[in-house]
Specification:
- This protein is an all-alpha fold.
- The protein has a single domain (14-96), classed as 434 Repressor (Amino-terminal Domain) (Orthogonal Bundle).
- The chain has five helices and no strands.
- It has helices at residues 14-25, 29-36, 40-47, 55-65, 69-96.
- Helix 1 (14-25) crosses helix 3 (40-47), helix 2 packs across helix 3 and helix 4 (55-65) packs across helix 5 (69-96).
- The longest helix is centred in the last third of the chain and has 28 residues, at 69-96.
- The chain is elongated and about 50 Å long.
- The mean pLDDT is 92.
């Protein structure tokens, strides 16, 4: 049983990781979108945290970046969970005011 599991104070949308990887690869979001046969809007929305990474995108990202699909999906799940807990906490605090 893990008692001292590390829990970050903040999670970043995996789109930030994608943006960093594209920079490292020397690709613009438009070039990446064309490479994986997705729209620029989709990739831009992921990078800007407006669109979640689903299984389809995760597999495409894995193929293009060599970062495993499970990394993208786990990052999205962790981010979504963090945001939901933050929202729930804010709602609870609003009720107490």
């Amino acid at each position: 049983m893990l008692k001292n599991r590390y829990k970050p104070q903040v999670y970043f949308h995996p789109g930030e990781t994608l943006a960093e990887k594209l920079e490292e690869m020397g690709l613009s979001p438009a070039e990446f979108a064309e490479f994986i046969d997705k729209s620029f809007k989709t990739i831009n929305d992921v990078i800007n945290g407006k669109t979640a990474i689903n299984q389809d995108l995760a597999v495409l990202f894995e193929t293009a970046t060599k970062i495993p699909a499970h990394f993208w999906l786990n990052s999205q799940r962790d981010y979504d969970e963090f945001m939901q807990k933050r929202y729930k906490k804010a709602m609870q605090e609003a009720v107490l005011i």
